[in-house]
Amino acid sequence: MVKARKMKTATESKPARESFAADMRVAIMLAGEANPTPLRTALDAPTLCLPLAWDCTLLDCWQEACAQIGVQELRIVVQDEGDVRPIEYALQMCDHSKVRVASTQIIVEPDSIRDSTGTVGRLTEDLGPEEFFLVINAHCLPPVSMSPILSATGNAVLGVIGVDHKNDPSGIVAFRRSSFDSEQHEGILAVTEPNLEVMSGHDDKFVIVVLDKKTRRLIDRASYLDAVQGHQKHAKGELPEYCRDTSVFISDTAAIEGACVIEPGVVIEDDAIIYDSVVMAGATICCGAVVTRSVIGRHALIERDGKILRMIEPSDRDLRGGQSRGGHRGQDGWRKSA
After folding, report:
1. What is the pLDDT of residues 16-41, one digit of tens each?
2. Contact, 299 vs 313, CB < 8 A?
3. CA angle at residue 302 from 312 to 333, to 5 degrees?
4. What is the CA radius of gyration of the chain?
5. Which of 237, 259, 278, 293 could, after both became Cys, cross-link 229 (CB 3.0–4.6 A)?
């Protein structure tokens, strides 16, 4: 059994936050999902709660990214009550030695998908007209740094839009609160969509800054695994050495290669091979099984000599049950009942 070895936390190597042109006290995180993706359905978890490393979820990454630029309040907007408990649990379970935002709220807004501008406007009414705040797409991986978006705020600017090198929006926009007080800016959150014509509108009072090489959105199995790889490469500068806690059993003859996440309570038996995959809490990978570019849901069982290639093995037993009842293959490589 491999003993636990805790990964060095980001706070030990990162400098104190810089000062910027504008204080960014509040961040609004839009986390609603109007049409749950196959990834969300199969894993039965909000995207924010997905692990990117053994001790780090997507929510942890956003907490650190926001805290580094001085955000004091993170207001997470979800569409229904069902997402509140798992996000609260993720907040409770995070490593509190890491950099964190001082205050985090989870707010249920059923209309947050249909009327995102109205939702954000209502949730920032307590801010001063000249105060800037962030609007974040919760389903994106944070960029290496958000400091350029703050540095671009100025007296004549109503908002700053983050993009990548291909001008694909990064899911991060800084708004001056007064921009929500004018009818001419109705539907202003359309600028967060990948539409350059819309982004360059509004009397040229919105500027665009490059934040990262590539925007990573977690929308399916492939993009999730790419985000895991991107996060781990940035965190360590190379493919990570896998850190496991004492609740994990990994046979000495098992092989784990590439960008992988092994969560607590996982059992990986003799001669199993895991490559570029996520194995979630309580899952078992039996002897000789091969898991490649796949996501194994909580408490799933991969049978002896099983071959899982570019698939999601669902957390939900009913979805897994479809495999033995002649179910058909659903989107993204997982099976569901016919």
Report:
1. 444 445 678 999 999 988 777 888 88
2. no
3. 20
4. 21
5. 259
